[in-house]
Amino acid sequence: MITVRALLFDTIGTLLDWRGGLISQLQAWGAAHEIAADWPGLVDAWRLDFIMSIAKVRTGEREWANQDQLQRESMARLAPQFGLPGLHADALEELVGMWHELPPWPDAVAGVDKLRSRYIVAPLSNGHVAMLIELAKAAGFTWDAAMGADIFRHYKPDPETYLGSAALLGCEPPEVMLVASHPSDLDAAAQCGLRTCYVSRPLEYGPGRVVEATPAAGHFDLMVEDLLELARAMGC
Amino acid sequence: MITVRALLFDTIGTLLDWRGGLISQLQAWGAAHEIAADWPGLVDAWRLDFIMSIAKVRTGEREWANQDQLQRESMARLAPQFGLPGLHADALEELVGMWHELPPWPDAVAGVDKLRSRYIVAPLSNGHVAMLIELAKAAGFTWDAAMGADIFRHYKPDPETYLGSAALLGCEPPEVMLVASHPSDLDAAAQCGLRTCYVSRPLEYGPGRVVEATPAAGHFDLMVEDLLELARAMGC
Lengths: 236, 236
What we know:
The structure is a homodimer of 236-residue chains. Chain A is 46% helix and 11% strand. Chain A is α/β, with parallel strands linked by helices. Chain A has a six-stranded parallel sheet with strand order 3-2-1-4-5-6, sandwiched between helices. The interface between A and B is medium-sized, with 22 and 22 residues.
């Protein structure tokens, strides 16, 4: 029986309500600048475009760039389609910066705090270290380390991210559990030998919208409704 | 005027009393195993041997190895000279593990906590990330990130450590201040464009023993007696 010593957390989606947070910030920004647009549609398109950008980095089709750079390029592409032509540089930075201040799901901070009493806890995110620090300060997370994609110059689900994090934590892969609401992320971690915990986040993509199907019972080591349930399951 | 956004802290010596902590742990270990030895002498020799090992990694004379590996090799070399022949593997691990649990200087935890209210704070150490996490948990530090030498596969004072840390924190070098009790470390950081703060730790090498001379007034951006003075100087 190998004991889990460290928990890694997917951040955008698993801990933070990126969609709700961005829509709120964009609505406020639009009101302040007297701009109306389909903000939920823009947020969904932005997220999708970013995920396609990551795929290009992963395949080597484009060179390494961090999440800020990719989000900036995505927004520059999308803005004209959503009635925001000619965003000047300051406005673009303001929009990209919205990804650095996202609201946590209600259980997330308390759950991580409880788990930190017995385990090493760290985000493992496709965000970069500086972004993870800002997100943690804004939401109130306390971490033992911050595993940003820029440490590895690889994006999840590349194995370098899971294995590199385990190595930096001084753990063998089975001593580390990835906690995520995205089955694809967890499957890649499991292939690297990590333990896996699926967290249900039914509102991540908006009410009633499913992007990845809920995994079958038993597909991951743990399946929980929120991080407080995980803390109880892990003896915290 | 460039504003400092992040503070990096040398850890072994600047935040932690490695010498006092190791002597105490070795004395207790010796008492438990009915072994008498010149523990202060062994600690001083161990530290020196480790520093010489780091130099060999820095010049490329030997390949990368983390602090645990180097400390293990050093102790294996020194043990016979100090009357500890034939240390078995478990005992060697126990001694190396003593570097993962060192007492903080009295002002260190409170000082870092105060500084964290306004700045990004992270250790920048020749220890590895896993070691920094254990040291932080044992001593009670809360960090925003942990900059271990294994992230860069370079030891201080290689520029990769200072510039690599600034990049991961999303800062330009002058936005980052290194806080250290070792002038040689600070001089190297300054050459990379970082700000510098010298902290006096007169007891680091034992009472009355000076390894690096106190720098002249004005040589570094700040010179303080402890981290509470630094917090006040930085507006915390």
